[in-house]
Amino acid sequence: MKIFNSYTNQLEEFKPIHKGKVNMYVCGPTVYNYIHIGNARPVIFFDTVRRYFEHRGYDVTYVSNFTDVDDKIITKAIELEKTEKEITDHFINAFLKDVEKVHSKTDYIQPRVTEYMDHIIDYIQQMLDKEFAYQVEGDVYFRVGKARDYGYLSNQNIDDLKTGARIHINEKKENPLDFTLWKKTEEGITFDAPFGEGRPGWHTECVAMIDDIFGEKIDIHGGGSGLMFPHHENEIAQSLVLNNHTIANYWMHNGLLNIGSGKMSKSEGNVILVKDLEIDPNVFRLFTLSTHYRSPIQFTDEVLETYQTEWEKISRLYKQVFVKLDLGDMLQGSGRIHPDLLSLYHDFLEAMDNDFNTPNAITVLQDLIKLGNQILRQTHDLELLKSVKEVMDEIFSVFALTADVSPMPKKDKQLYRDWQHARQDKEFEKADKLRAELQDKGIL
RNA sequence: GGUCCCGUAGCCAAGUGGCUAAGGCAAUAGACUGCAACUCUGUGAUCACCAGUUCGAAUCUGGUCGGGACCUCCA
Rounded CA gap, A61 and A17, in Å? Predict the structure, then answer.
């Protein structure tokens, strides 16, 4: 299994730290608003990564945080005349609802910044003690100039960054690249620390959480490519000071989702919220996974319609196969997959093993659909159809696709057989009536 | 101004040095069908452009044009 490691910028064989285990952390949302469809991409992609590792037999510990301390949350709280906690509780619930809406798992570890304040303060103190941080008028900054390998992850060198630094000069900083660890403030919710009252910057939380939860270097750290700099760069800088390692063996970054021509972001105002999305989650997942995770995706109605069509084709076949097997009392899994289908399943694994090449994996699914349709029309071989279903079930479980099927009660089975008989006997009026009934029941 | 990414058929999208450049959608021609729907089969690209490296390039190098990201909160 190969993964593209953003840290080394190359494809690497995946080797877990602990045999059979995967420890992974994905940067979660700052909970001051509903998430948009661009935020859903890492949710869906890393959920797929988790599912695939589990499919491969790994025991996965998946952690993703909630940033529930932030200026934007405070602004929102003041604006709505509520407490920060009311705001963040509301948007955490909303987030989890959206995660479910796109068929992603919510049973992962969800640390919140407010629960980690002691750790964060302790970490900042340690950095001060080691002189990798300094205080100015109650603020605490990280001393980037002293950090080792700063810029390695995002492939930038400090001098270029300095040259490119925009005019936004903070007189308090020794160096414009230094980032805030602690900000002195009296507005909104604040916390007490040895270095004064205020709140933490957002770069320390991930390090503190990962260290507390896992207690060591982890396998995978994921997030959107927009986080690579400065957020992940800053995380690594701190971890090198505190723990002398780069947090994760493999850094994974997903590309952005664009809408129309430009990028979608909260500040651009061209957002589509997940909660307002009115498409089948299966379609949205197919759409999201139809492009390799490191490439950007364009969100357009035309492409969405393509995957709508695609999903109808996939789910239609699944349903037909399911009904055939149900009629033949062959829904129970045999665990034996026919060689022809087994080779397709292996193609699927091969695609996924190659840095989660979901587009190619979807192509395998399409091959499977074609084959299934041929069997359905030509050989009617139930054993083969059973294998088709079983391979589809495997792929569905990794992609979190769900076709709407359930075993038929006896009278529906009879109805189906009656329909077939009516057609054979050329009693078309009767057949059409039965067909309409079956369609009403969602069997056809 | 600095750093970096991308440009494959009408649309989406694999492939990143070597047989005739996967696959899907759309289009079109056919087959199947009692009618619908579905389904299957056939049909399409000198890989933005130019120059170079190489026995050989969509794939590597340089340049041109076009699009985008980051350097500031952002998945």
Answer: 13
CATH 3.40.1280.10 corresponds to the domain A301-399: no
Nearest of A401, A402, A403, A399 to residue A47 by alpha carbon: A399
**pLDDT attached to residue A351:** 95
**A366 beta carbon to strand B: under 7 Å:** yes
* A41 sits within 7 Å of strand B by its CB: yes
Q: Is the confidence metric ipTM above 0.90 for this complex?
A: yes
Q: Give start and end residues of each alpha helix (H) in A277-336.
A: 281-289, 301-327
Q: Is the CB of A138 under 7 A from strand B?
A: no
pLDDT in the model for residue A444: 83
**Pseudo-torsion of CA A71, A75, A78, A81, nearest 10°?**
-110
CB proximity A125–strand B (7 Å threshold): no
Is there a contact between A286 and A362 (Cβ–Cβ < 8 Å)? yes
Q: What parts of chain A have a pLDDT lower than 50?
A: 167
**Confidence (pLDDT) at A265:** 58
Residue A167 has a pLDDT of: 45
Chain A span 159-218 residues with beta carbon within 7 Å of strand B: 160-161, 163-166, 168, 176-177, 179, 202
Of A66, A116, A46, nearest to A293 (Cα)? A46
Rg (CA), chain A: 26
As its CATH architecture, domain A2-278 has 3-Layer(aba) Sandwich (3.40)
Length of chain A: 444
User: What residue ranges do the domains of chain A occupy?
Assistant: 2-278, 301-399, 410-440
A7 in Cβ contact with A219 (< 8 Å): no
The amino acid at A297: I
Is beta strand A59-64 parallel, antiparallel or unpaired with respect to A21-26? parallel
Q: What 3-state class would DSSP assign to A219?
A: strand
Q: Label residue A86 left, alpha or beta by phi (over 0 means left) and psi (-120 to 50 means alpha).
A: alpha
